[in-house]
Amino acid sequence: MADLHKLRERPPEAEKITINVGYVDLGHIDLLVREGFYSNRTDFIRTAIRNQLGAHADAVKQSIVRNTLELGLRHYSREDLETVKAAGRRLRIHVLGLASIAEDVTPELARETIESIAVLGALQASKSVKAALQDRIS
Fold first, then answer.
1. What pairs with residue 121 in β-bridges?
2. What is the pTM assigned to this prediction?
């Protein structure tokens, strides 16, 4: 039993959101689900979101370039931040998607190495790191 290792938990691949939908709109969604157009309400909502993102794809691409955003998943390890600190630099984190800061990053290291954070999507970090960077998160 001493050879057992705890596996690292995988970060979730999605962020849960809550929306309020009017009763009539909800009824329309339920009707489409009942008629077999969608497997459930979530399927309808995801499809609607993808359709809107597709309709605005060119504007999104232009905005990503204009705002110099990294697209997708971006993880910052303790080693990454220690390398930045050793080089005497500071990070400006701009991500569209998921930015995560490793659990072993101390609030002090985060403050020393991260100048600003702008995330369109989700930021995953310990509560203490988020608190330490609160004035730098937009």
1. 97
2. 0.67
